[in-house]
Amino acid sequence: MIHNYCTRLLGGLAALSLAATPVIAQAQAAEETFGPTNIPISVVGPKLNDPNNRAPVAVVNGSVITGTDLAHRVALLVATSGGELPEEELQLVRLQVLSNLIDETLQIQGAEAQELEVETAMVEGRYAEVAQRNFGATADAIDKMNEQMLAFGSSAASLKRQIRGEIAWQLLLRRNVIPFINVSVEEAQEQLAQLEATRGSTEYRIGEIYLSTTPETRQAVYQTAVGIVERLRQGGNFQAYARQFSQASTATVGGDLDFVQLNRLPPELAREVEQMQVGELVGPIEVPGGFSIVLLIDKRQVLMADPRDSMLSLKQVSISFPPDISDEEFTSRVNAFGEAMSQVGSCELADAKAAEIGAQVVPNNSIRARSLPPQLQSILLEMQPGQSTPGFGSKEDGVRVLILCDKQAPPAASGKTVAQIQQEIENERIEKRANAYLRDLRNDADIQFPG
């Protein structure tokens, strides 16, 4: 399977199916509906749904994006995402991929206009790196990669073009954005002082999928957002959706805003986030310029030790059951197992007790509490060494308990350094400038969608 090298395109639809949205149907019922990058869906939609159409789909400053370009890129995306998608769900995928191809074309053209050469050797080198990551550092890795691309219904040229676009964009940012971002030590120190002043207040780690709108695209984008929320609530991968569909700068990291305080969020988001529980999903929320879908990943108190950072030593004791066990016998054995484990009293005695009742023991001597499911976190953090959790599991998977052997409280939070804060501010400003720069490239471009 091709390595997820390309952050936006191959960022993943792994193990998820995309929301089927009524965007195409709306275009037929309304005067006009627009997709990402103001793509007129009534014009482009029929071409997107015809896999045999090899005519131009878009023309960007004279450069043609053909149906073949689109088909190869979509095939690569679907193949690296773990399987086929229903036709109605592919509509949204094709629209987003076309938008990505338009941006990619603008980035390549921008580098060429400024005589920033993307050397073929650089593209081939990165393609070889992808091949070696997937097929090993062997002489035939590239040949195997080429064969795999063809098997996907794509081509080596499609992935190499995307690699060229990413290199071009990096060169543009290095010349036009990064040199003009400066964060002084004094500014970082001031922010550090503000951080110290808020010690003990709550900050929230948020995942966001942001979809921008115009007055013309508002309804279509809203319907798209509703569809994404429905799929996420059915078990879709939030990071994968964020990488593919979010138009915020955090898309490349799966929509992760990291830890922020409420005063750094738009008021519409802050009101929702303050009431959310960890793991909760809310949206779509209308914010200036678009809609946001928000996942509360975590929360903590500023510069305070978090109990969930405690290191735990555990022993898992489990029992399994024959396939034909009756409900009555299952309940009886689970009760007996739980009673036996509650009387162990220490990890030292757990192995002997497990052997006595025919259970299996798996030790784990170093696990951070926050890495466990939330329900187990709260139970284990309230326990004392030697105590065990209630039994959990099923007939099919077996039933297990966790015995707490040791618990090491987390050290007091040391906070961030001035250098770390400087880097954070710098990265944030680079991302904002990069988004504005790409938006300017779009606004200045002549983008046509042949009928």
Describe what is shown at a glance.
Helix content is 47%, strand content 17%.
Question: What features would you describe in this structure?
Answer:
The chain has 451 residues and is an alpha+beta fold. The protein folds into 3 domains: 1-196 and 422-451, Triger factor/SurA peptide-binding fold (Orthogonal Bundle); 201-301, Roll (Chitinase A, domain 3), CATH 3.10.50.40; 307-408, Chitinase A, domain 3, CATH 3.10.50. It is 47% helix and 17% strand. The strands form 3 sheets. A 4-stranded antiparallel β-sheet has the order 4-3-6-5. Strands 8-7-10-9 form a 4-stranded antiparallel β-sheet. The model is unreliable at 1-32 (pLDDT under 50). Residues 1-25 form the signal peptide. It comes from Parerythrobacter lacustris. This is Parvulin-like PPIase.
